[in-house]
Amino acid sequence: METNFYLKKLIIQNFATFKNQSIHFQPGFNAIVGETGSGKSLVLDALQLILGGRADKKVVRKDTDYSLIEASFKCTDSEVQSYLENEGYPIEGKELIIKRVIYKNGTTKTYINHLSSTVAFLAAFAKRYIDLVGQFENQKLLSEVYQLHLLDHYGKLTDNVEQFQSKLHEFKALQIKLSQLEQSKANREQRLDYLNYQLQEIEKLNPDSQEEEDLLMKKNLLINVEKNRKISFQLKEIFDGGEGNPGLLSQMKSFNNILNKNKEHFSQYTENASEIEDMLHLLITQIDKQFDNEMDPQVLEGVVDRLDIYQKTKKKFGGTVESILHTQMEFLKERDHLQLLDFNLEEIKNNSELFKSALSELAKDLHKKRLANAVKLSKELTQRVQSLKMSGATIKLILEELTEFNEFGLTRANFFAETNPGEGLFKVKDIASGGELSRILLAVRQILSSYDSISIFLFDEIDTGIGGETAICIGKALAQVALNGQVIAITHLPQIAQFADVLILIQKDIQGKDESSRTESKVKEIMGKMVQKEVRQMSQLA
Fold this sequence. Notes:
The protein is an alpha+beta fold. The protein has a domain at 199-338. It has helices at residues 40-50, 78-86, 119-129, 144-154, 158-186, 188-205, 209-240, 248-261, 263-293, 297-316, 321-339, 341-387, 434-448, 468-481, 494-497, 530-541; strands spanning 5-15, 18-24, 29-33, 66-75, 95-103, 108-112, 115-116, 130-133, 241-242, 245-246, 394-406, 409-418, 426-427, 456-459, 486-490, 502-511, 518-527. Strand 16 (502-511) and strand 17 (518-527) form a beta hairpin. The chain is elongated and about 170 Å long.
C-alpha cells in the first residue's frame, strides 16, 4: 500500500547528547535500536517535540545556546494538504516541514512550512494524523470520543453518524429559532404598542413626496402674498388717505372740480383730468380685487405647520419621505409577524418535537448497531492481545446508553480490560503496566489502522517486560500495522527488530578523557540485507 504521508528526515542539533545528526526514515517499519543509554529514547523525545510536546530547557546541549529539531514529511495526502492549507500553512513541493527551536532560557519557537505557528496548533495537527503509543497523558486512543469514533469506523457506521449529525444540526437551528420566538413573544405586547404608536404617527401624516413639494411652493408663494398685502395696504392708504391726510383720489376730485369751475380757462384739460380720475378708480378697484382673491394669512400658518410635521417625522425615520415609507412598510411586516407569532411558535414547537423524535430513533438505531459491533470488536481485540502473549487477557468495549443525546448520539464508549483472569475488568487507561497497555493499543492499531486518518504510528515502551515468543508476536503485529502506514518503534529486542524494513542504530561515542570528555550520540541507518546482519549481532549481544 502506498504511503501518502510519512516522516522522511529528522534533524537533531544540540539536543542532549546529540550534537548534529540527521536521521532518514522510510515508509514501513522503522526500528530504533541501540544499547541502553545510547540515546534511543532521545529520538522519540525529539519526535514528541515535533508533535507539539512540552519543551524543557534541560535538553539544550551544554555550552550551546539552543536546540533545534526539524522534521521533513512527504505529504501527498489530499486530506492533510487541505487541512494545512485551510489553516494557513500551504504545502509546497509535496513536503511538510516542522521545526522547533528551544533556547537555553526556556523560550521556544515553532514553525510549520517556515511560517510561525503555535504549539497548540501543532499538537492539534499531530493528534489528528500521528499516533504516539506509550505516552499515557497524550494517548488519544484513551479518549472516550475517539474510542467511539474507532467503533463507528470498525462497524462502517460513519454514514449513520453523519446522517444523525446532519439532523442534529437542523434540530439545533430549530431550537435557536424557537428560543428567539419565545423571547419575541415575551416582549411582544410592549413591542406591538410601540409599533402601533409609530404607525399611527406615520399614518396621521400620510406622507407623500409630491405633497411636500407642493407645500414648499405654497409656502414661498404665501410669504410673497404677505409682502404684497403690505404693499397693497400702503397703496390704498395713498389712494384713500387717512389720519387727516387727503388721499390721492380726494385730491384728484378737488383738482377736477377746480378745472370744471374754471372751464373758460382750462377746458382743454378737463377731459384728460376726468380720464385720469377714472383710471385711478379702475386701478384701485383692480388692486382691491387682487387683494380679495389672495389666500387668507391663516392658510400660511397651516402650510408651515404641515411642513413642520414633515420635518419632525423625517428626522425621526431616516431623513426623507422615502425612508418614512420604508420604515412604515418594515413596521407593518413586523406587526404582522408578531400578530402571527402564536401560530408560528406552535408550528415550530411541533416541528421541534418531530425532529427530536426522529433524532431519538436515529440515535437508538445507531446505538443498537454499535452494541452489535462492540461485541465483535471486543472478541477480535481479545484474540489479538492473546496472540501478543497476554494469555487469559480479555478486552471488552462497554457501551452506555445516555438519557440525552449529544453530537454522537446516545452512546458513551469505554475500553475495558482484564489482564489477569478473575481480577475483573478495568478501564484501559487505568491499567498500570506500560507494556500491557502498549500491547493492547497495538492490537487496536492492528485492527483499526486501515480505518483511521492516522498515517504515522510511533511506539514507545512496546517491548517493556517481554521477550521470546511474545517479542516475535509484537514484531509481526508492528509489521502488519506498517502495511497501512509508517511505524517508528524503539526496541532493544532482536525478535522485534528482525521484522523492520529499516534499522536506525543509535550509538554512543565518548570523546576526550577525564573532565574534558563529552558524550555524543550518532546515527547509523541500516537497510536491506544488512538489517538481518545487524539483528544477528543484536542477538549475540543479548
